[in-house]
Amino acid sequence: MAFLPCDHYYSEEGRFTEALDAAFEAAEARRDCVVLLGAAPSGPEVEYGWIELGGMVAGPAAGVRRVRGFQEKPPLPTAEHLFRSGSLWNTFVMVGHVGAFLDMAAEAAPGLMEALRSGYAPARGARETRIADWVYERITPTDFSRQVLTPGARKLVALGLGDVEWNDLGDPERVISTLVGRGAELPEWAHRWRKSAARAAGGEAPATAVA
Question: Which residue segment(s) compose the domain that 31 sits in?
Answer without folding.
Answer: 2-168
